[in-house]
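Retry 2 of 3 after timeout on previous attempt. Resubmitting structure tokens to design endpoint.
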């Protein structure tokens, strides 16, 4: 039973209600207006999401339910004490990432800082696979600023036309190559301000180049890292800059160099936007994502 005096988090639903033979009966009861009336909003949403299947095996309102889940489903991970994210948990998360992938790196193919810069410029709103297919043909022909200018805008677009926004990106590449030759002797600058002054290069692109090409412990926050940071509560934030600042502050120093790659790979292949693979997630028991899917 639910009452208004007891906080929703400590109110108990007997685990037998959720036993499989009784699931249809439970669904019928939960849909009754008399059952839902007066309950806290977040509890109502939790019940309805359970019925829709998005929170199956994740309702742990009582110790009985926890024991039942653990005895009958070894793949179900639940933190009964709901310990909030802290320094020790973050340490454990990144230790697991490191154990699974000791030497992570970008999935973009490159052989020099210039090739990486061009690949990252092309990767905006595009997949790494698509960019790699284009650069596999482009870089053997032009892998320096001068060679790219010699190829010409039309020539570059011939190689990049399979990538979204290729016309704008190709123009940025030509402008960037011209600036690199005029100001930096054809070399990619190892400086954030200089990188961000290049056409089409923002803070994220600059951070990718600084981290991957030059070994700077910086954090390039893309949509995957933003999602993982907020779901897990490793570094929650309303915008990418807030998430970046918190990651730089909260990620243990020993993991800063590779944290960017671990988080982006985790977001790309496990903590997906539409269908997160919580059942096979290596940090499931440490994550604070409320709608875990098993």
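Retry 2 succeeded. Sequence:
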């Amino acid at each position: 039973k639910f009452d208004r005096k007891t906080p929703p988090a400590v109110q108990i639903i007997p685990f037998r209600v959720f036993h499989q033979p009784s699931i249809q009966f439970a669904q019928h009861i939960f849909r009754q207006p008399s059952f839902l009336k007066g309950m806290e909003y977040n509890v109502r949403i939790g019940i309805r999401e359970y019925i829709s299947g998005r929170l199956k095996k994740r309702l742990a309102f009582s110790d009985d339910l926890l024991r039942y889940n653990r005895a009958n489903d070894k793949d179900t991970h639940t933190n009964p004490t709901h310990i909030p994210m802290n320094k020790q948990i973050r340490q454990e998360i990144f230790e697991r990432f490191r154990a699974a992938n000791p030497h992570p790196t970008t999935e973009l193919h490159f052989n020099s800082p210039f090739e990486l810069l061009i690949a990252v410029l092309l990767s905006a709103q595009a997949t790494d696979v698509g960019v790699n297919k284009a650069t596999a043909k482009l870089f053997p022909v032009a892998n320096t600023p001068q060679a790219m200018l010699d190829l010409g805008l039309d020539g570059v677009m011939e190689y990049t036309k399979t990538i979204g926004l290729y016309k704008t990106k190709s123009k940025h590449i030509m402008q960037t190559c011209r600036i690199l030759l005029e100001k930096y002797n054809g070399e990619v600058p190892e400086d954030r301000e200089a990188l961000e002054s290049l056409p089409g290069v923002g803070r994220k692109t600059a951070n990718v180049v600084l981290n991957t090409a030059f070994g700077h412990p910086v954090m390039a926050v893309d949509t995957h890292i933003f999602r993982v940071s907020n779901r897990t509560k490793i570094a929650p934030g309303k915008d990418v800059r807030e998430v970046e600042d918190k990651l730089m502050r909260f990620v243990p120093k020993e993991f800063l160099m590779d944290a960017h790659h671990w988080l982006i790979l985790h977001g790309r292949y496990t903590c997906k936007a539409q269908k997160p693979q919580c059942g096979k997630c290596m940090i499931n028991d440490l994550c604070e994502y409320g709608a875990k899917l098993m």
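Attempt log closed. The longest helix spans residues 166-183.
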